[in-house]
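Consider one such protein record:
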Amino acid sequence: MAIEPDTKNWTWVIESACPDCGFDGGTTTIRDVPELIDANTARWPERLRRDDVRQRPDDATWSPLEYGAHVRDVHRKMTERLELMLTEDDPLFPNWDQDATAVAERYGEQDPAAVTEELTAAARRAARAFAAVRDDQLDRTGRRSDGSGFTVATLAVYYAHDPVHHLWDVRHAR
């Protein structure tokens, strides 16, 4: 069964605390992001070894496997966006429909062990990429296809919320 697409604009997490997962973008900086990503990534393998890894808790919520595959792709996508921002002037990011990707890539049918390995590798690459950003690059800009603008610094904070929130989703969805 298809999940109803999430149409919320989550950019508010850059400046505020998320009432669900507790991530506080207002107190998080790009320098915190590599450690946050590393700590979060260390907790995914256990979630992806669950006996019910393919089971959706209800018709409106992804399974742990689907969340894991999505988080893997978020790490990849945000690394790509960071690279664009560091090499181009104010790039417009190609549109990424996360819900269409989940269906097209059949997230719920992927191998949990492979997703774990790929998520870990993608997270490691992303964390290192954000750690390597120099101070003089923090204000470089980029735009999402919906017009939302980011600096390198705000993209890092926005990005860090996603895996944190989805780990919370997996822990709290039953």
About this structure: Residues 64-87 form the longest helix (24 residues).
